[in-house]
Design a protein that fits this description.
The complex is a heterodimer of chains A (184) and B (160). Chain A is mostly helical and 184 residues long. Chain A is built from ten helices and no strands. The model of chain A is unreliable at 99-112 (pLDDT under 50). Chain B has helices spanning 3-8, 10-14, 20-32, 34-47, 62-70, 78-114, 117-132, 136-140, 147-159. Classes of the chains: A mainly alpha (184), B mainly alpha (160). The structure holds zinc ion. Zinc ion binds next to helix 1 and helix 4 of chain B.
Chain lengths: 184, 160
């Protein structure tokens, strides 16, 4: 099935098309969310949000971008929203409300899921990436984990090529400092 | 370039994102500087050797949750739900109470100043009236970045 066909069917609320759409893009969306949030449960919640948002607003999708670019954009924005929300909840000390262990099991160690990242140095890399400002972090994640080109990153982030270059430039310089410190 | 500047660029050096001249300069520096040689070895170990990066997979039940939510039958994600609950149960009543107290205070002050008890009670009535109408709009008026503004953004997100 061509992408345009799939989109038309999703617009028509075709159950099989919705499921196909999910099956094609679930890993992509989930992995971006996971890298943005560094926690599998949060990534799952965010992925749910991304698909619900995408399906509900598919009528707004114009064919001038790739479906994956559009979905990446929703995923990245959702991930950033979740990060902000997590910060607010932590700041308000709402742990009594949400139950710290249940909701933020990896807050205590401030690192990624240990079970998943058995590879220690990758865990350190993730930790360093998490500490970057939101837009630098987004650009690095899209480049490193999703292997997107500068041009694709620019499309997802709705910015210019030179802005992406500069974001990655600053991100890597920051990462060099953070990582060398962490690795010692 | 000095040692300090070179050090910052090591990751971009590894990712081949530097100009020819910069690369040459760094290569030359690495030959002479033991500290930078050590750092770049550590960095490349973490940055390059940790590839290929593992992909993760969502739980097989996720689609069920999504389709239930699409049908309007299921709950939103837990974090969203809890924050919403907090806003409804705690933040909004607290802010409402604060507005009422402020209204009363202004009412009394104003009343005292003009020495008219009638005006004072009217102010109180007005403030109580605005309290009953108190809703999301009041949050929206708060500047983004402030706590109220952030809560408003969360609520708005929910109402999308
Ligand atoms: Zn040096």
């Amino acid at each position: 099935m061509k992408e345009s066909e799939l989109i038309e069917k999703i617009k028509g609320d075709d159950g099989t098309a919705l499921r196909t759409f999910y099956e094609i893009y679930k890993d992509m969306v989930y992995n971006v969310c996971y890298r943005m949030l560094n926690n599998r449960q949060d990534a799952e919640d965010a992925t749910q949000d991304v698909f619900v948002k995408a399906i509900r607003s598919v009528h707004r999708f114009r064919g001038n971008a790739k479906l994956s670019t559009w979905l990446y954009r929703i995923a990245v924005n959702t991930g950033l929203n979740y990060t902000r929300r997590k910060k607010i909840v932590a700041w308000l000390s709402l742990d009594f409300l949400v139950g710290k262990d249940e909701y933020f099991p990896d807050n205590a160690q401030a690192g990624p899921d240990l079970e998943l990242e058995k590879n220690e140095s990758e865990a350190l890399v993730q930790q360093a990436i998490q500490s970057l400002p939101p837009r630098q972090r987004t650009a690095v994640i899209l480049q490193r984990y999703e292997e997107l080109s500068y041009k694709e990153i620019a499309e997802v982030m709705k910015t210019s090529l030179s802005a992406v270059e500069s974001l990655l430039h600053h991100a890597k310089d920051n990462l060099t400092e953070k990582l060398t410190a962490l690795l010692k | 370039m000095k040692h300090k500047e070179i050090r910052k660029k090591l990751l971009r050096y590894l990712d081949a994102e530097l100009s020819q001249e910069e690369r040459a300069e760094i290569r030359l520096h690495l030959e002479r500087c033991e500290q930078c040689r050590k750092d770049i070895k550590l960095l490349s170990g973490a940055w390059n050797l940790s590839q290929p990066i593992r992909r993760v997979q969502p739980s097989p039940l996720l689609w069920n949750k999504i389709s239930l939510q699409l049908e309007g039958k299921a709950q939103k994600g837990r974090l969203v739900h809890k924050v919403e609950l907090f806003v409804r149960q705690t933040a909004r009543p607290a802010l409402t109470a604060a507005v009422v107290v402020l209204g009363l205070f202004i009412g009394i002050k104003l009343g005292n100043r003009v020495m008219m008890t009638e005006l004072s009670s009217r102010q109180t009535v007005i403030s109580l009236q605005s309290q009953s109408e108190f809703g999301l709009e009041n949050f929206r008026a708060l500047s983004p970045g402030s706590l109220g503004g952030e809560l408003a953004a969360l609520m708005e997100y929910e109402n999308e």
